[in-house]
Design goal:
It is a single chain. The protein is of the alpha/beta class. The chain has a single domain, classed as Vaccinia Virus protein VP39 (Rossmann fold, 3-Layer(aba) Sandwich), CATH 3.40.50. It is built from seven helices and nine strands; from the N terminus they run H-H-E-H-E-H-E-E-H-E-H-H-E-E-E-E.
Length: 246
Amino acid sequence: MSNATPIPATIRPAEAAHFGRLADDWWDPAGSSAMLHRLNPVRLGFIRSAIDAHFGGDPRSHRPLAGRRAVDVGCGAGLLAEPLARMGAEVTGIDAAADNVRVAIAHAAASGLAITYHCGDVADLGLAGYDLVTSMEVIEHVADKAAFVAALAAALGEHGLMILSTPNRTAASRVLLVEGAERLGMVPRGTHHWHDFVTPIELHDLLAGAGLTMGNPQGIAWGPARGLHLSDNCALNYIVTVTRAG
């Protein structure tokens, strides 16, 4: 009989099922994931700048991740994993929904991209040594946030870079992201649960508990003239860099 302490599961089956039902529509920029298609270029702008700053790369290079390993946790159907592969990384995508992984594999193959996808709980996969760990809009959906962050920390290489984004738990996010966006059909109903949103202070403490240091959060805001854009206003959503402490 083993005396090993079991790893807490991070997957919520209902959440995985919800996103799995959206899988076949994931790559349609006018479909149920339309908001992610609008959000992705904003996230990629932040990610590219963070990569160049952390690894000291040439900002003019089209392949700043050449020779590096990246893992996208909660990858959906590959909306971020594919750009990371085009940046030159050897990419692994992890998702809790089998249908998402099915669609991701097919889309990568059709795009001529060699990406490795796994369906499962990141806490169970024994990931380690990645130069870049990303997880976009995922931590608010997991069952055990501390266990999830610990698994991300285990995947991160000694000198690696982690990038996370998540909605902030504010009155504005409740009105606009949950009550507004879902009721107006901009986001599928049941996608967001406001009480599970994570504030920057809470995320800082979760990361510190896993031996990680969080950079200054940058907001992802929305305005009628600019749409979604990087901002100093973190009231709706924010994105951060993370490194190993010390």
